Amino acid sequence: MRMTRQRMASCTGPLTREKVPLQRLILVWWAHPVDGNMADRRVLECHGLRRSFGKIAAVDGVGFHIDSGETYGLLGPNGAGKTTTISMIAGLLERDAGEVTVAGEPMTTRSVRAKSALGYVPQELAIYPDLSGRENLMFFARLYGMPTAQAKSRTDEALALTGLADRAGDQTKQYSGGMKRRLNIGIGLLHRPRLLILDEPTAGVDPQSRNAILQSVEGLSSAGMAVLYTTHYMEEAERLCDRVGIIDHGKLIAEGTRAELVSMVGEGDQVRLSATGNLAGAATDLAARPWVRKAEALDGSMDLVVENARSELPAILTDVAASGVTVRSVEVAEPDLEAVFLHLTGRALRD
Amino acid sequence: MRAAWLICLKDLKARLRDRSALLIGIVVPLGLAFIFNSIFSGISGGSNVISLGVVNADHGAASQQFTSQVLPAVSRSGLVSIHAEPTETRARALAAKGTLAAVIVIPAGFSARVQANRPASMQVIGNADAPVSTEIARSIAESYAADLNRIRLSVATVAGTTPLPPTRIQALAAQAAAASAPVTVTDVSAQTKELNQKSFFAAGMAVFFLFFTVQFGVTSLLEERNDGTLARLLAAPISRASILGGKLLTSFMLGAISMAVLVAATTLLFGARWGNPAGVTVLVVTAIMAATGIMALIATVARNAEQAANWQSVVAVVLGLIGGTFFPVSQAPGILSSITFVAPQAWFLRGLGDLRGGSVSAVWVPAMAMLAFAAVTGGMALLRLSRLAEM
């Protein structure tokens, strides 16, 4: 990751409205010098976070960390405690217990320095409808302490980054939903934070804008920004997140990479072979293999559960061929985070 | 402070752009002041100075005293201008045209009948479109008639049943007349000083709508919480005091802009007389502070922006009515004249009344009263506002 940032540092230059791939644009934009100690890769550290509302423990002992260049997904159903956790990390909400450190600075509701290193993109479209896109950006740039000239320059860059330069002077109430979402994110990036918190940024967004947002996040992560991402969409988490934390009833019940989580719950890859021949014999032979957990012959097909389908598929095909079976097609289904979530919580993510 | 100004400027820009603040802060009060002023000017004869015609067909001692002493004294009050007309016919025509609001006719032989202790009468001709002016003319005539009756009664009391020579009667009448001034128009006491009509409606509408105007600033904190932008402000590297300060500053600035425009516009367009600029400034500033404090306190007990706006409107209307912004409650009898001072609007209007012809020092009591409103309600609001600035 450090190499990526060094490579990008040589690409700095004036932004234009040419159609530059979004990821490259982000890399160029964010690869400016950043305030703070970049030698420290640990951007966010939180542990023991607790917060109750009356007798209800909304967050109960949550802790995790995010390093520079890492995207961390916080998954959980509605009411699981995601937003309360994020609010404490962003310094919006007092916590009952626990510690939060952002870029080495302790975060509280009054922490000015820690907040300077944090970009927050709330789930709601937190923009002012009676102001133009440019005025919204300028306001927040000035609020983050930038002098006027720098605020103008960053505003222009953010407008180019979000593809809103042509509509910069329009009041944002005239923007489409996707444009508002992009501006919402652009405001969070204005001051080039080390940690970006994105709270369900693609909720209610059309597929095209959604893809642009996901590309942006990928680009920011590649450029070295630490990203905390919450979503209801499992496929987004699988695409973007280096690590995932699953939160339910205020507790972090599992954490790790996708592979680690899948391994943790013991799910295997499912392989279905559409074939003719001695399927029962082939199934018996395959069941003897140590990496095959289950082999079952059906009418015209065979279902297998194996530990790693990608690596074992050649051996499977060799074995069934040796048993006199002719394979017409192969389907592989790997367990996803949805399955992990279901296994851990007993319900689907969007319940 | 820098962040508070940025938030204030952002809010002002948004408010001026959606035009609601302009409408409520300037256009509506200006329009209503104009309408009320036009309506009440029509009732009183179309002008603050009543044109009163006098036809003296008598030219005797009693009528001469009325035209040379009573009417000039009334004229010096500035409320009435006297126009001597040669004939009743001409005076009637002028009254019918509206040139004269009313006419007092003293018929021939009036003085002789008075001196002979026989029934005598003066005639008041009024313009139907100026009933108040007609009533004023009638009051002047009746007042003089009462004075004449008092003198006749004095002379009769001294004379008893004994016939007196005419010279003695004249001497006694002169003595009785000298005992009191003829009809006078005296300034009322300081406690019940009133603005003239144009100034009253200008000031009344301005301070009435001030309470609606300032609510935009504080209530926007609730709107920002609802829209999600408050979360973004709280995540920014600024203090919570800056956010609260910015909202209060917005209220104050909206109120100041509204009042400044209204003072200037009503002075130039309607001829309203607000008084000493320094005194007016003190009153306006303290009124804005009181209005901001009250509206902020209401916002802090509301659950959302819509509820806050509803409650604020109710309080603004009730205080406006009690405070005498539509009619001078301080002139009302009994408890009404006292209860009016539970409203800052009443202190504002009283301050402007006290300021008429006076110096800045005349407004300290009303100004301190409004500051007390601001301190109490604003202090309570600040304590509760900090809770509003939480997620």
Explain what the structure shows.
The complex is a heterodimer of chains A (351) and B (391). Chain A has 351 residues and is of the alpha/beta class. Helix content of chain A is 38%, strand content 26%. In chain A, a hairpin with a 2-residue loop joins strand 4 (97-102) and strand 5 (105-106). The longest helix of chain A has 16 residues, at 207-222. By secondary structure, chain B is mainly alpha-helical. Chain B folds into two domains: 2-42 and 196-388, no CATH class; 49-189, D-Maltodextrin-Binding Protein, domain 2 (3-Layer(aba) Sandwich). In chain B, strands 2-1-3-4 form a four-stranded mixed β-sheet, sandwiched between helices. The radius of gyration of chain B is 29 Å and the shape is elongated. The chains are: A alpha/beta (351), B mainly alpha (391). The A-B interface holds A 87, 90-94, 109-110, 112-113, 115-116, 118, 120, 122-128, 130-131, 135, 139-140, 142-145, 171, 187 and B 3, 6-7, 10, 13-14, 17-18, 227-229, 231-240, 390-391.
